[in-house]
Design goal:
alpha/beta, globular, five-stranded parallel sheet, 5 strands
Length: 185
């Protein structure tokens, strides 16, 4: 039996699950941009796969948060706001969430969720768990929504999307985040 998938079979999978197609497209575009960081066509195409409507679609099943211990108080605020807004959020501190079928391990959460809320600070950039989670999402083509909590240099992360800035105006940051991930009714 041949284990290779045909183009027709792949197109059928993509038709049934646009997120898989978008993740696959993001993987390819990120690889191109890693080799050719100034490729404007690839950068533009990648940004189209990260539009608000795409983030909303991907977030409807829930999001995962990555943050360091020093940023836990802020992460808890984000978690609470999103949960009150009706979104499922996986976070280490709250991994025993409300339902029996909700993800209980970090690895399963990475596999299950299509959106990572990456809380950024200098401490987070030096946290092995935060960076490993970021890398898993980046490599799998999943969406990464950067939340800039404290000033830090994030150019090496190759996010290709403007972070939601919480540094000067927390309320504006929360409004922008809620707009981006809100669940359509």
């Amino acid at each position: 039996m041949n284990a290779r998938i045909t183009i027709q079979q792949m197109n059928e999978v993509f038709r049934k699950s646009p997120l898989i197609e978008l993740n696959t497209r993001r993987i390819a575009l990120r690889r191109i941009l890693r080799k050719h960081p100034n490729d404007l066509k690839a950068r533009d195409a990648l940004q189209r796969t990260q539009q608000v409507k795409v983030v909303r679609l991907a977030a409807k099943d829930g999001v995962m948060m990555a943050f360091c211990k020093k940023d836990e108080a802020f992460a808890t605020e984000v978690h609470t706001s999103l949960k009150v807004g009706g979104l499922r959020v996986w976070q280490d501190a709250f991994d025993g969430l409300d339902t029996d079928n909700w993800v209980t391990t970090r690895e399963e959460a990475i596999e299950y969720n299509n959106v990572l809320l990456l809380i950024l600070s200098e401490a987070a950039l030096h946290d092995d768990n935060v960076m490993a989670t970021y890398q898993s999402f980046w490599d799998s083509g999943k969406l990464i929504v950067p939340l800039l909590y404290k000033t830090c240099n994030i150019q090496h992360l190759n996010l290709y999307v403007e972070p939601i800035d919480f540094r000067q105006d927390m309320l504006a940051g929360f409004h922008r985040l809620m707009h981006m991930v809100r669940i359509p009714k």
